[in-house]
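A favour, since you know our C-alpha cells better than I do. Would you make up a two-line entry for one protein for me to read? Write everything out right here, beneath this request.
=====
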Amino acid sequence: MIALVAMFAMSMSAQTFESSRFIDNTYFRLEGGATALTHPGCNGYEDWGHTIQGVIGAEIGKWITPKFGVAFEGDFGIRNGSKFGYFNYEWVGVDDAGIDLYQKAKRFNYINVTGLVKFNMSNIFAGWNPNRKWEFVMATGPMWIHGFPGKNYENDFGVKFKAEVNYNFDERWQLNLIPEFNYNLTGGYSFGTYEHPRFDSRNSWYGLKVGVTYKIGNQFTECPYRYTQNDVDKLNAEINDLRARQPEVVEKIVEKVVTKEVGTQTVYVVAFDYGKAELDQAGRDVLNTIPTDVVVDVQGEASYPGSKNFNQKLSERRANVVAGYLANRGVKVANCNGVGETGHQIVKVVVK
C-alpha cells in the first residue's frame, strides 16, 4: 500500500511537469473468465471440476510512464451451480444435534478488491513503441477477500500475481488475455487454529480471464512528456534567433579579438561553424597573419548543441586542425589542447 501511495504521488508530480490532465493515460477494463482451486483435495472438494467457477470483474488504472502504472481491480466469483462442493452451499447455522447446516445459494461466492502495481515488460526490455500491437504486462499487489459461503471465511488478506497479453486494436481499444494466481494469506485452518499469513498453495487459486480495455484521455506519443504548441513555438524562436545571431557574433570575435593584446601576449581567434572542425577561408586568413618566428599555444573551444563529451572532442579536433595548419607554415606550437564547452565556437592562438 505504501508503494501504491508513492506511485500516486509520482503521478501527481508528473502531471504537473507534463502540463497534462489527470485522466491522460488512464484506462477502464471489463473482464470475465473462470477460476479453480490449486489443491481441491486439501480443501474437502470432491475433485478439481467442482471448484471451477466463473468470475467477472473490472479494473481502472493509470500508466504513470510507458513502463510503470497503478490500478485497482475488483472481482466477483460466481457460484458454479454444481451439485457437489462447498462453493455451492452456504452455512446457515447449527441444528439441535450440533450438526452444521448449509443451504444451496445462488449468489456470488466471493468479492476481491486488489491494488496493483503494473510493469509493461515490452516497454522495459524492448523500448517504448507507440505502434506496438502486442505487449506483455506483469502486475502484483495486496488483495482484500470477502467470501460468502462459510462463517469462518468472511474477510481475509491476500495477494494477486497476474500477467497480461494485450493486443492493441488502435489508440483506444485493447483486447486482454489474463492468467492469474491468487493467495489467501490469512484463510484456512491448520490443526484447529488459524494460520499466520503465509504463501500456502493449499489456500490459493488460479484463473484465466479475457478483458476488453478502453483507454481514456491522451496517450503517450513520441515521448512520455508532452509539449504544447506554445512550447514548441518558443523553442523554435530561440533556435532561429541563435541562427540569426551567429554571423554577427563570429564577425565581432574576428574583428575585435584577433589583434587584442592581453598583457604582453597577442591573441588570435579563429571562428568555426556549429559542430564543425574544418578551417574555412576566413580562418586561414587569420592564421596567415601570425608571424612564423613566434611560439604559440593553441586552445580549442566548443558550445551547444551537443553533449559535454561531444563538445570536448570537438574542441580538441579544432585545436589540432589549427595547430597542424600553423606547423605547416613553420610556426612553433608549444601547447595544443581542447577545453570543451565554453559557449564559443572558436580556437584561440596565444603568442607566448
Summary: Helices lie at 2-18, 121-126, 229-257, 281-288, 308-329. Residues 229-257 form the longest helix (29 residues).
